[in-house]
Amino acid sequence: MTKIQLVTNTIINQGVLPLYYNADETVTLEILRSLYKAGIRAVEYTSRGEAALSNFTKMVEIRNAEMPEMLLGIGTIKNVQQAEAYYKAGADFFISPGFVAEVAEFLIPKDLLYSPGCMTPTEIIEAENSGVTFIKLFPGNALGAGFMSAIKDVFPNLKFMPTGGVDTTKESIESWFKAGVSAVGMGSKLVSKELMLAKDYTTIENETKKVLEIIQSLK
Fold it and tell me: Which family would the database say this protein is a member of (predicted)?
């Protein structure tokens, strides 16, 4: 099995991709442990602050020591220089808010999953023609599940995951899966700023378990 297929299968099997960023290394690692204990085996860490690369490097180290089978992805990749830095740090997959052709050219030949954010058929076609197989619908709250329903038949060979605006409720998750997505991305709705600030790792673990249970009930 290729690495791209392994990452794709892992994200689809769990049905949700949690994503978060925290400037504090300890908080970052404790959230990662909470998600792993909940049953998560693929996580997106977002490159949105000065500490992101050093925190991510530490996450890889802790994963290697404590968390067999956990795949660590990096989000908010906007140029090839960022992709190179996180490739060297050991990222298993890469996610962008938009499609960057140079990033696709750098990663896909290395058998690394690249999931770009797209919000128009033109962007999706461009990504598909570059070898992308897993599309992030972004921003999900602006596009809505109706957009997914309208385009899915045009792109039978692609997998889709909305990020932004997907709630932790069964109604919200179900609406997207019924529309044809393969997984949902969840950031602040799951790993909220309030929970991070309170260092409430138990609630993060329990809420994640609930989301996983909802998704399994829909399959």
Answer: Belongs to the KHG/KDPG aldolase family.
What is the rounded distance in angstroms from the CA atom of residue 219 to the CA atom of residue 198?
33
CA-CA-CA-CA torsion sign (181, 187, 189, 191): positive
Task: Identify whether the C-beta of residue 114 lies closer than 8 Å to the C-beta of residue 103.
Answer: yes
With tokens 């999953």, the residue in question is 113
Q: What share of the chain is helix, strand, coil (3-state, %, to 5)?
A: 55, 15, 30
Q: Which uninterrupted H or E stretch holds 159? A: strand 159-162
Q: Catalytic positions, please? A: 44, 136
Phi, psi dihedral angles at 154 (to 5 degrees)? -80, -25
**pLDDT tens per residue, range 70-102:** 999 999 999 999 999 999 999 999 999 999 999
- Beta strand pairing status for 93-96 and 113-118? parallel
